Amino acid sequence: MASKIYTKTGDKGKTSLIGGTKVPKSHIRIDTYGTIDELNSYIGLVNDHITANAGNMTAANAATTPATTNALLKEIQDRLFTIGAALACDPEKETKMSIPDLKPEDVLLLEKSMDQLNEELPEMKAFVLPGGHIAVSTCHVARCVCRRVERLCVGMQELELFIDPLILQYINRLSDYLFVLARWIGHRLQVEEVKWQPRV
């Protein structure tokens, strides 16, 4: 029989960090890794949209395909779990758990992948609005959540709560990657970009 998912320990609005420290569920550290979880879920949805539409994506002589993008997004989800685990730890206490580390190569992988996607894309000559296809719009939602994570991480820094600078760097690059990915998805699906036409 599976163990019960509910513990009844959080009924008073508090939760425990890895290490045992109890904090209110409104704490910025909880908000930050909770928003990482939200981001991870949206990236899973983006990946599902790419899988569902892979047959409609135009072929191109490029290093990036729907399959390689699927694999990278799954790797990004793994990195986000790593970040979430790091943020869930009390930096003042030793933990018996083995927490995987984020590495500088993870940031470089995002940069390399962005460069590969950009090689296929036409020059952007105007601001673009989210839209045109549900896969494109979902990717933009993920990008917005990623930016919110970044703001929360900066908020932690301002409160002098420890956060590895590499996490902030990774999240910053990830939001850029998701913007480029949204354009790439639309390009491969032959969807016209929705250009912003400011009212004058």
From TrEMBL:
Pathway(s) of this molecule: Cofactor biosynthesis; adenosylcobalamin biosynthesis; adenosylcobalamin from cob(II)yrinate a,c-diamide: step 2/7
EC number: 2.5.1.17
Enzyme class: transferase
Alphabetic keyword roster: ATP-binding, Cobalamin biosynthesis, Nucleotide-binding, Transferase
Gene Ontology biological process terms, A to Z: cobalamin biosynthetic process
InterPro entries reported for this sequence: CblAdoTrfase-like (IPR016030), CblAdoTrfase-like_sf (IPR036451), PduO-typ (IPR029499)
Domain Cobalamin adenosyltransferase-like residue range list: 5-185
GO molecular-function terms, A-Z: ATP binding; corrinoid adenosyltransferase activity
Reactions the enzyme catalyzes: 2 cob(II)yrinate a,c diamide + reduced [electron-transfer flavoprotein] + 2 ATP = 2 adenosylcob(III)yrinate a,c-diamide + 2 triphosphate + oxidized [electron-transfer flavoprotein] + 3 H(+); 2 cob(II)alamin + reduced [electron-transfer flavoprotein] + 2 ATP = 2 adenosylcob(III)alamin + 2 triphosphate + oxidized [electron-transfer flavoprotein] + 3 H(+)
SUPFAM superfamilies according to UniProt: Cobalamin adenosyltransferase-like (SSF89028)
PANTHER family for the chain: CORRINOID ADENOSYLTRANSFERASE, CORRINOID ADENOSYLTRANSFERASE MMAB
NCBIfam families registered for this protein in UniProt: PduO_Nterm (TIGR00636)
UniProt record similarity statement: Belongs to the Cob(I)alamin adenosyltransferase family.
The protein's name: Corrinoid adenosyltransferase
